[in-house]
């Protein structure tokens, strides 16, 4: 049994690299780890993690000599970092390499929603353009005001892009940050009142659950658009669905959901949403870079070097 175990549904090239570079054994579920012989589990010192299934202290205890959990992705809310720290287990993630792709998708969702690109495309493919004439007028996106909920690496990259659209940038974060004159708000309600578009770029986990609440959506108002590329947990999904159905806000562009990939069927009946299958970082180039950084962290750990992107 190798001392590297990988868990998750990895692409073929990542599986090949994990096996070739690290001699990793690959499983897909926590239950498969529990089913391994005890002698095999005792040999594992590093875990390559690519899962949405929660990985907590009980799971870690199945690997008594575990020293590293290397997460595939910037969000690590599925991993109980406190439990890892209590057991002397280091956690890493893969930040920065995916910023551009996620920011690109956030801007695309905003434009697609405001300019009604999907229904306009359907107008063409259905033949309506030829038989019924031009599609209805959409709304201008450039020149509006954008509020970034969470000005971390990805949030800042989104804001940088939106400045090219002549937008006034507002943000909320745990603390005020050095910016090129962007407006800081101490809470999401104040932020929502001040902007046309609300882009959610928070980390997941209990601390950010339902940060975009019913009150925030009401403050955004009937011309407001919500874009979420963070985690489904950061938005009160029932409140969002109510707001979309009753016109409290104008629309939403969503890449993440509660309980994904089984999303609330109410979303499927709405005409004022653009829905994506959690593909913010889903390009060939970025996923390759994420896999490489995950493996590089494991290599560093096994060699006794400093971790490249430590979380704890």
Main pleated sheet: 7 strands, parallel
**What pattern of helices and strands is seen along the backbone?**
EHEHHEHEHEHHHEHEEHEHEHEEH
Spell out the CATH superfamily of the largest domain.
NAD(P)-binding Rossmann-like Domain
Q: Tell me the count of domains.
A: 2
Question: How is the largest sheet built, in terms of strand order?
Answer: 8-7-6-9-10-11-12
In total, the number of strands is: 12
Q: Level of helix content?
A: 25-40%
CATH-derived topology of the largest domain: Rossmann fold
**First-to-last CA distance:** 27 Å
Radius of gyration: 21 Å
Strand content: 15-25%
CATH class of the largest domain: Alpha Beta
Describe the structure.
The structure is a single chain. With 312 residues, the chain is of the alpha/beta class. The chain has 2 domains: 111 residues, Rossmann fold; 177 residues, Rossmann fold. The chain is built from 13 helices and 12 strands. The mean pLDDT is 96.
Keywords:
312 residues, Rossmann fold, 2 domains, 38% helix
Brief write-up:
38% of the residues lie in helices and 15% in strands. It has helices at residues 12-22, 30-35, 38-43, 57-61, 81-86, 99-114, 117-125, 128-132, 153-163, 188-194, 214-220, 237-246, 284-302; strands spanning 4-8, 25-27, 46-50, 68-71, 90-92, 145-149, 168-172, 183-185, 197-200, 225-228, 251-254, 273-275.
